[in-house]
Amino acid sequence: MATTKFEYRARDKSGKVIEGEIEGSSREAVVKALRDRGAVPLSVDAASTGALQMEINIPGLSDRIKSKDVAVFSRQFATMINAGLSLLRSLSVLEEQTQSKPLAKIIGEVRRDVERGVGLSAALEKHPKAFSTLYTSMVRAGEAGGVLDDTLLRLASALENQVALRSKIKSAMAYPVVVLSMVAMVVLAMLVFVVPIFQDLYAGAGGELPVPTKILIGGSDLLKGFWFIVFPAMGAAVWGFRRWINTPSGRRLWDSFKLRMPVFGGVVHKTAISRFSSTLGVLLRTGVPILQAMEIVRDVAGNAIVSDAVADVAKSVKDGDSLAVPLASHKVFPSMVVQMIAVGEETGAVDAMLEKVAEFYDQEVNDTVDALTSLLEPLLIAFMGMTVGGILVALYLPMFNLVNVVG
Fold first, then answer.
1. pLDDT of residue 252 exceeding 80
2. Average of per-residue pLDDT across 199-208
3. pLDDT over 80 (residue 51)
4. pLDDT in tens, 151-189
5. What is the predicted pLDDT for the residue at 97?
6. What is the pLDDT, as a whole number, of residue 15?
7. In the sheet that 17-24 helps form, which strands lie side by side, from edge to edge?
8. Where are the alpha helices (DSSP H) in 48-194?
9. Within 10 Å of residue 252's Cβ, how many Cβ atoms?
10. Cα dihedral sign, 324-326-328-330
């Protein structure tokens, strides 16, 4: 009788969880064999073997965990806990149901840690690629306060809001990127294929060419003659820039520039304030101590300038100041934010005020992005027309005095 290799997880007589592979004619036969050994089967699945079942893993891509998947996991986890399921049972179900294979693998590792007696937050901390410091700190606070389901729901809502906001900004930026890429390709094609035709025509005619035409022909000659230098130089410049902005000084200068950018700087600033307010508000509402919460906010601020300001505010709070007073000394925090936090401190509802600030700035970002999208579309079309039109004018400019040149 043909046998199949199965992967199993079982609990032995001492209560220890064991894993391994075993051959059997069917899943039921494997379960029976394990029970005959005195083990309690936990899971039995056909082993993935053979070329048709081989998985392709791309480093840096196949193991990527999306915030959206973590948000779905959190909401489902909260629902199961609230319904009365145990941690282990909930994690087992989520491990099987989660569509993201990298996340399912991590959930399985978390479940095994919890089975060994490790706390949920400690088990999650082992996987920083999936669960941030913010996430694990809130889970720890939820465990201590006995409100894990409520904490997970708050985390799910926060992650869903972040995903929605990020998606909206990406969608708004997609159109400009596509248009600018098309303009770049059209200009490149004209410089390589069209300009040389006119260059030969004008070279045969003789005479002095207009300055715009000379510049265009010079650019074409540079691209054709030194493409092996131009393109690697552009690639090296991009690589160098990315390396530079990953240094502490480069990151600060770049983040400072982003905050001061015309038009787009407002979106960056409002997004940073929304993130600061929502993160700090959720942490405080969950019961995380203020200094620990400030440290987490500093690490997840997403902007070096805001992060430095939060670190400075945390020092003042540690020295005994209120939250609003040191915030007021940093221009990155708008006056309205400072005033609302001050009112929250007076009424004992800082977390609620911070959540209101986050809601306000989320709406501000949405409105600004919508306005920018409406404004950018005609501007980009005009830019594309002016760029291509400018090249055509520069090419045909000598035609206007071609008769004089020939004469």
1. yes
2. 78
3. no
4. 898 888 888 888 888 888 888 888 888 889 999 999 999
5. 87
6. 64
7. 17-24, 4-11, 40-46
8. 67-82, 87-97, 101-115, 120-125, 133-145, 148-189
9. 16
10. negative
Closest by CA to 323, choosing from 350, 349, 304, is 350
Beta pairing partners, 40: 11
| CB 213, CB 398: distance < 8 Å | yes
DSSP code at position 7: E
- The CATH number of the structural domain formed by 67-160 is 1.20.81.30
CA-to-CA separations, 341 to 190, 294, 317, 356, 385, in angstroms, rounded: 57, 14, 14, 10, 49
The phi and psi torsions of 117 (rounded to 5 degrees) equal: 100, 5
Quick: pLDDT tens for 55-81: 334 344 445 788 889 999 999 999 998
* Cα 164 to Cα 161: distance, rounded to the nearest angstrom: 5
Q: Where are the domains of the chain?
A: 4-53, 67-160, 174-407
pLDDT tens string 2-45: 567 777 777 777 666 677 778 777 777 777 787 778 777 766 66
Say if 4-53 and 67-160 have the same CATH topology. no
- Three-state DSSP state, 23: strand
What pLDDT, on the 0 to 100 scale, is given for residue 49?
46
HSE on the CB side for 233, CA within 13 Å? 6
Q: Are 130 and 77 in contact (CB under 8 A)?
A: no
How does DSSP classify residue 226?
A: S
* Number of helices followed by number of strands (H, E) in the chain: 18, 3
Instruction: Give just the sign of the alpha carbon dihedral 261, 265, 269, 275.
Output: negative
- Spell out the CATH class of 4-53: alpha beta
Other CB atoms within 10 A of residue 288 CB = 22
Average pLDDT in the chain: 85
Q: Of 122, 153, 115, which Cα lies nearest the Cα of 140?
A: 122
The pLDDT confidence band at residue 143, using thresholds 50, 70 and 90, is: confident
226-to-218, 249, 254 alpha-carbon distances in Å: 12, 34, 31
pLDDT score of 185: 93
